[in-house]
Design a protein that fits this description.
By secondary structure, this protein is of the alpha/beta class. The protein has one domain: Alpha-Beta Barrel (TIM Barrel). It is built from nine helices and eight strands. It binds pyridoxal-5'-phosphate. Keywords: Pyridoxal phosphate.
């Protein structure tokens, strides 16, 4: 439990997978956490954070960014096209690009703003109706479409179904990424980041194992 413990476990998982620990970025998911917990983790030196709601992130991160140098902010939750501008101004990386309409909105805004966050395409590997993400069968086409729009696609992201073995989903995501020449793999959370690292994760998104259980709202 806690940042130091998670970093140690990431290093160990990298060693076992014969990987360089520098090839795995820990994204500390700070959604819903009390501000003092987030501040404590900032004070411990963590600089890469993730949030799942644009509005919530806009409420706390401008202040933290002003007080702590070098913060990198990742959006890991679903993004509505009408919030794309605000998201692009606030976040350095967006993990949840999952449909043509959103990709087109981001492309238009990138032209206008003259910059674009790094992007991950979310794949609904479990083909769950309630979950965001492009279906695996549509992933190759959508990746090509994003590239045709000149979007900086760095990799793929998935959230496996809770009741299934995550490794199968991590392996599928890795396969889709490999055949499309993508390096980035955003996969693995508190309960399964070590398995994700074994299967090539470059970004693990860990929340409760760092900050403690989220306070229910
Ligand atoms: C909340 C969240 C996480 C972190 O979940 P934990 O189980 O607390 O580690 C990771 N990814 C996404 C997309 C999330 O919404």
């Amino acid at each position: 439990m806690g940042l130091t413990d998670i970093r140690t476990r990431i290093e160990k998982a990298c060693k076992e997978a014969d990987r360089d620990p520098a090839s795995v970025t820990l994204v500390a998911i700070s959604k819903v956490q009390p501000l003092e917990r987030v501040e404590a983790v900032l004070a411990e030196g963590q600089r890469v954070f993730g949030e799942n709601r644009v509005q919530e992130a806009a409420g706390k991160w401008p202040d933290f960014k002003a007080r702590f140098e070098g913060v990198e902010l990742h959006l890991v939750g679903p993004l509505q096209s009408n919030k794309a501008r605000q998201a692009m101004e606030l976040f350095d990386v967006i993990h949840s690009v999952d449909r043509p309409k959103l990709a087109q909105a981001i492309a238009r805004l990138a032209q206008e703003l003259g910059s674009c966050p790094d992007l991950f395409i979310q794949v609904n590997t479990g083909e769950e109706e309630q979950k965001a993400g492009i279906l695996p069968a549509d992933a190759d086409g959508f990746i090509a479409e994003c590239r045709a729009l000149d979007l900086p696609v760095k990799g793929l992201m998935c959230i496996p179904p809770v009741e299934e073995t995550p490794s199968l989903h991590f392996a599928l995501l890795g396969k889709i990424a490999a055949r499309n020449g993508l390096e980035g793999l955003s996969m693995g959370m508190s309960g399964d980041f070590e398995e994700a690292i074994a299967l090539g994760a470059t970004h693990v998104r860990v929340g409760s194992a760092i900050f403690g259980e989220r306070v229910k709202t």
